[in-house]
Amino acid sequence: MPAPIPFDNSYARLPEAFFAHVSPAPAPTPRLIKLNHALVMALGLDPEYLASPEGAEIFAGANIPDGAEPIAAAYAGHQFGMFVPQLGDGRAILLGEVIDTSGTRRDIQLKGAGRTPFSRRGDGRAALGPVLREYLVSEAMAALGIPTTRALAAVTTGEPVFRERSLPGAILTRVAASHIRVGTFQFFAAQGDTAALRQLADYAITRHYPAAAAAPSPYRALLEGVIAAQASLVARWLLVGFIHGVMNTDNMAISGETIDYGPCAFMDAYDPATVFSSIDHDGRYAYARQPSIAYWNLARLAEALLPLLATDKDQAVAEANAALDRFSDHFNAAYLGGLRQKFGLSEAQEGDTALMQDLLARMAANAADFTLTFRRLSNAALDPAADTDVRALFTTPAAYDEWAVNWRTRLERDPIPPAARRTAMHAVNPAFIPRNHLVEAALEQAVEHNDFTRFEELLAALATPYTEQPRFAALAAPPPPDQDPYRTFCGT
Ligand code: AMP
Ligand code: MG
After folding, report:
1. Residue 347 gets which letter from DSSP?
2. What spacing in Å lies between the alpha carbon of 440 and ligand 1's midpoint?
3. 184 pocket-lining for ligand 1 (C-beta < 6 Å)
4. How far is the CA of 89 from the centre of ligand 1 (A)?
5. Is 484 a domain residue?
6. Statement to judge: residues 216 and 162 lie in one domain
7. Contact 461, 469 (CB under 8 A)
8. 152 and 57: one domain?
9. DSSP designation for 465
């Protein structure tokens, strides 16, 4: 019988300094909570086997399938601006890699499967709530079309984990294009290990930026590739109201995927200063600061790569700066281009940026719901009678009316026919996002009552976020107005 999962583990073939061999702590009584069938198929795996008790044991760390080589990766990182030379996978264990049906190499990793040499004071565990939260939010991001790690499975372990109180333990199986972070480069750079740094860069080029290999300066091309990917990623976050919450350099993937769903959340009312994370006291990772933080993180990557960019130090710094200088162009192109689509503007015209910023400022001043404003604007683009639904989102509805006059004047100068415009707007302005109050309600029902009905329902609605789904209408609504400010906590 062939191995149930055809592993091919390239990262484990790198030198020992890159990782530690580890064994997952087997869960005593694993129970499969959720298996992502679509992702199982995309990975070319066998859904029946993975849903069987033997398969579920794989996701619980209790069955190491043939070909798996469990390792915990070493990395460093800047956490809230402070450099920590040794972090590493403290509660994540890479089982191995598979080549998916599109030919892409993907990591399969257990998150919450026990202690590793990098656990420091942590227990290596995960609680059910944060596991389901990552499952919901990362799958929502994928369905929104935003590059992200995916959730393959969630299991409960049958063991309690202790946080402020005892909680059911769980493991998330995460799938990623890779788990190489900015912090992985920093790990070797901080040690002055240029040979390892070069090996890592070569590995990242082969795996993520193969075209860079043929560039005049492959490492500069690698840096530029990551800069472009991250600029575009952060633009996509802003366009859906996503706040990552903990953009430390160890949580920024070289692949350009969103990674590490801890205190992240989507904003309801538009406010550029929105912060949800309980530990982000200064708003370092606030919604509107995400582009500048991404740039800061990329500058740390450039710094780490300096020894590879040129033998002459000044020359290397000049190369790094030239690459970093491209960030704002990439970001602005992605962000303004995306905004234009959200507003139904099919081509760039003078005054667009001011027009769009004007509505955003009015939304902020009027606590207008970010997602619903744009979703309803899509309808108003075709039928001015739908203005009623948009203006109702503003504390002072006239603030919308004034702006809408200018918007309509601009729409008249746009070549796209109104019906096609509405369709195009619906395709970029989601009706469904993982609303905080709904996510919390789903987690509460699951954790306190072992009932996954709301979790499943929310997951189903979020699977096609751009489609009207009348049966899920309640899941598109903003939170009740009297709700306390939402707070998130790091997924420990
Ligand atoms: P994060 O803030 O989730 O990105 O985690 C930062 C660091 O803490 C990483 O090295 C994690 O592996 C580690 N870590 C987080 N939670 C735990 C835990 N429960 N046990 C061990 N290590 C952890
Ligand atoms: Mg992390």
Report:
1. S
2. 22
3. no
4. 7
5. no
6. no
7. yes
8. yes
9. T
Domain annotation covers residue 381 = no
Q: Identify whether 362 is part of a domain.
A: no
Please tell me the total number of residues recorded for the chain in this structure: 492
What CA–CA distances, in Å, run from 302 to 348, 382, 492? 33, 47, 30
Question: Which amino acid, residue 332?
Answer: N
Looking at residue 218, its pLDDT comes to 98
Active-site residues, by number, are 250
Among protein residues, the one whose CA lies closest to atom 23 of ligand 1: 90
Task: Report the pLDDT value the prediction gives residue 485, as an integer from 0 to 100.
Answer: 82
209/203 Cα distance (integer angstroms): 9
- Look up the pTM and report it: 0.98
First CA to last CA distance, the chain: 39
- Cβ-Cβ contacts under 8 Å for 145 (sequence gap 6 or more): 236
226 and 325 belong to one structural domain:
yes
Q: What is the pLDDT of residue 491?
A: 60
Number of domains, the chain: 2
pLDDT (tens digit per residue) in 78-118: 999 999 999 999 999 999 999 999 999 999 999 999 999 99
Could you say which residues of the chain have pLDDT below 70?
1-2, 491-492
d(CA 487, CA 276): 5
Domain span at residue 22?
11-176
Please say whether the beta carbons of 125 and 28 come within 8 A: no
Kindly state whether residues 137 and 231 are assigned to the same domain.
Answer: no
88 lines ligand 1 (CB under 6 A): yes
Ligand 1 near 123 CB (within 6 A) = yes
Are residues 199 and 123 part of one domain?
A: no
